Amino acid sequence: MAEYFDRIAHRYDRWYETGTGRYVDRTEKWLIFSMLRSEGGRALDLGCGTGNYTAELHRRGFYVVGLDASERMLEIARKKLPSVRFIHGDAYHLPFPEESFDVVLSVTMFEFIHRPEEVVAEIYRVLKPGGEVIIGTMNGRSLWFLFKRIKSIFTETAYRYARFYTSGELERLLLSSGFREVESAGVIFFPSFWPFPALAERVDRKCYRKCRGLAAFVAVRGVKD
């Protein structure tokens, strides 16, 4: 996967410049940061890519470190945020001491790892007691998931190699690793060609809890005991 993301790094951010990309990015960030309770401290953006969420954590006043397996993605992130520390590393073996972070955030990385339990154990290790983790992924039961899977049959995309999760699977993953106060939510209920983003956002903000099983993007939060 690192080789794949190295190949597409130069065009990765272009999607965020499209109408759909702006809506998705805005909505997913609204969900993630509405779930985050911490208002500052040390944060790890795990699977940071080109630094999209790293930049938002930095803007909110966190001392943030970004880690990714793709060196080409990190090159772009470093140009965006020259004052932030970015590390080329492995999510299975985080290069940090125990209890290093108040927050670990990982958005659209878990789709591309094969042993999620090991990564969650590493997250638990590097979090301080009372620290929180938020993991965001595509929902394996959404219409977006079906569309992306079909598209990947004919065109090589990252989703050809991805594993998707439901909100229940994410909750069980955290609970089995010792996290408490586990909760999940989801957004984006209309297909990518839906022409009324304002209506879609109203639905997102009304249904993100009770309809999360149908959402394209789901997030789970937990606290280290």
User: What proportion of the residues form beta strands (DSSP E)?
Assistant: 15-25%
- End-to-end CA span: 32 Å
In sequence order, what are the helices and strands, one letter per element?
A: HHEHEHEEHEHHEHE
Global geometry = globular
Low-confidence stretches: none
Q: What's the mean pLDDT score?
A: 90
Radius of gyration: 16 Å
Strand order of the largest sheet: 3-2-1-4-5-7-6
Task: Tell me how many strands there are.
Answer: 7
Main beta-sheet strand count, sense and barrel state: 7 strands, mixed
Roughly what percent helix?
25-40%
Helix/strand structural class: alpha/beta
* Continuous helix count: 8
Element layout with pairings:
Elements: H1 2-12, H2 19-35, E1 42-46, H3 52-59, E2 63-68, H4 71-80, E3 85-88, E4 101-107, H5 116-126, E5 127-138, H6 143-154, H7 167-175, E6 179-187, H8 197-207, E7 217-224
Parallel strand pairs: 1-2, 1-4, 2-3, 4-5
Antiparallel strand pairs: 5-7, 6-7
Helix pairs in contact: 1-4
What do these coordinates show?
Strand 1, helix 3 and strand 2 form a beta-alpha-beta unit. Helix 1 runs parallel beside helix 4. The protein has helices at residues 2-12, 19-35, 52-59, 71-80, 116-126, 143-154, 167-175, 197-207; strands spanning 42-46, 63-68, 85-88, 101-107, 127-138, 179-187, 217-224. The two termini are 32 Å apart. With 225 residues, the chain is α/β, with parallel strands linked by helices. A seven-stranded mixed sheet has the order 3-2-1-4-5-7-6, sandwiched between helices. The chain is globular.
